[in-house]
Task: inverse folding
């Protein structure tokens, strides 16, 4: 290990120890992870897209993402490579895979 990496590690560990001690001295307790999440209303334009394209299998939003990806990769990747990309691609609106399960 390079000496500079060791130094950085020691600095980080020392900093974490100092911050931990400071938090304990200040009476801070770790908050539950659930406090880090907040439920929000879906904005109307996103809700419209979701209902129009994501709430049904093989919906138009997913098909548009598939078509745009195929067009973008055409000529630069093989069909197998494009299929592999599409298999890993998730919808930015609903988070589901854009390809329906086989
Ligand atoms: Zn979607």
Result:
């Amino acid at each position: 290990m390079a000496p500079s990496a060791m130094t950085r590690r020691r600095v980080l560990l020392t900093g974490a120890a100092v911050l931990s001690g400071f938090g304990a001295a200040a009476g801070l307790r770790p908050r539950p992870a659930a406090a880090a999440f907040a439920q929000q209303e879906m904005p109307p334009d996103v809700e419209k897209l979701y209902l129009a394209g994501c709430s049904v299998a093989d919906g138009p939003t997913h098909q548009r993402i598939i078509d745009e990806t195929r067009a973008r990769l055409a000529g630069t990747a093989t069909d197998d490579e494009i299929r592999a990309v599409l298999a890993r691609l998730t919808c930015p609106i609903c988070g589901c895979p854009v390809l329906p399960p086989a």
User: Anything to note?
Assistant: Residues 3-29 form one domain. The two ends are 47 Å apart (CA to CA). The CA atoms of residues 19 and 60 lie 50 Å apart.
